Structure formats: C-alpha cells, structure tokens
Amino acid sequence: ELTGECGRAGNGPSRVQLLFTLLAAFGLAALMFVVAPHLLSLGMQRLDLGGDMEGFTFHMWDGLFKFFIFIGYIAALSCVPEIRRVFQYHGAEHQTIHCYENGLELTPENCARFETLHPRCGTSFIMFVFLISLLLFSFLGWPNIAVRLLSRILLIPVVAGLSYELLRWAGRSDSAVVKVLSVPGLLMQRLTTKVPDESMLEVAIVAVNVC
To answer: What are the CA-CA distances from residue 63 to residues 30, 34, 38, 40 (Å)?
Structure first.
C-alpha cells in the first residue's frame, strides 16, 4: 500500500514513464550502434573504400565504426561527475585486488601503490567480445535479417567463451602474445578507471575482506 501511495503521490516514476525510458534507451542504443555505423559504412562504400555489402571490407568498416562510437560514448560518460566517481571506485577495486594478489596488508597506503589497470577486468572482457565479434561477423556477410539475427544469437556463446578464455589466459600469463592481446582492454581501462581517494580505497578493502 505504501508503494502504491508513493506512486500516486508522484514520488517515483510511473510504469508508463519507465516504459518510455526503456524504449528511449533501446532506441538510442540502436541508433548509435546499429543505424549510425551502417550508414557510415555505406558512406565508405560510396567512396569506393567499403567494398560491397556482402564483402569482408564493408563489415570491417561497420565493426570499426561501432567500436569507435563505443569508445567515444564511454569517453563522454567519463566526463559526467557521477560516472567519474563510479570509475574511481572501479580504480579502487583494481588497486585493492593488486595489493591482495601481492600478499600485502590491505591498507589504503599499500593499495595506492598499485596501478588502476588489471588484466582480468570486465572491461577487457568487453573489448575481447567486441574485437572477436568484429572479426567473426565480418566473415558472415549480410544475409536477410532473420538469418543475420539468428546467426548472431547462435554465436553469442562462441564469442563469450573465446573472450572468457582469452581473459583467463591474460590473467595468468606474461607472454608477449598475451601482452599484445591485452593492450586494447588496458587502454580502455584508462577510460573506465580513475585514481580513487582514500575513502574509496577503504570501501574497496572492506568489500574484499567481506568476500
């Protein structure tokens, strides 16, 4: 009853507002990551740089445009004060994990000695997914929409599995190959992690100790 009264009093978003918010979010995502890259790829095709729509080159352009739009989106988000604060907590998490893995006492001073980047970060996983998808889907051509959607859905476990194994490998190996493969994810983490303050490190330490 209290929830209903709050909703009627206007203290929270209504179901209609939430529905429109979700639809707007999905629409914006489709515009940014589906429509815009495709139109830009068609532009490259008209400049004789994109190949035909069934060719490998066209789909490589499409994937690259998606990639750079995604990078720009994250870079823009990092300028928002609230999001930047979230990224500082992300950095605190990584510094604390580094400290723990090196067998040091978990104190803000010890954690602050380490960098905010970590090879097993979820950001690196996303980058592996992005790059593997870009390469794999480029070979599939541009069939009708039903086949295109079905092939992408069926290949999700393959892309996710390969990305996960690469992430695990990156976390336990110091080989030159791994270092090269980890570069995109680590560069992306320079956007998604920021140097935290002491209070943020204290929160991260408590979270690790609880786990």
So the answer is: 14, 10, 9, 11
**How deeply is 172 buried, as exposed, middle or buried, from its count of CB atoms within 10 A (0-12, 13-18, 19+)?**
exposed
Judge whether 194 and 81 are in contact, CB under 8 Å: no
- Kindly report whether the global pTM for this prediction surpasses the value 0.70: yes
Nearest residue to 202 via CA among 84, 118, 106: 106
CA-CA distances (angstroms) from residue 32 to 28, 70, 134, 157? Answer: 6, 8, 16, 24
CA dist 96 and 4 (Å) reads 42
Rounded to 5 degrees, what are φ and ψ at 44? -65, -35
**Using the 8-state DSSP alphabet, how is residue 140 labeled?**
S
Do the Cβ atoms of 82 and 187 come closer than 8 Å?
no
**What average pLDDT does the chain have?**
85
Maximum mean pLDDT: which of 35-49, 72-86, 142-156:
72-86
pLDDT digits (tens, 9 = 90+) for 70-104: 899 999 999 999 999 999 999 999 999 999 999 99
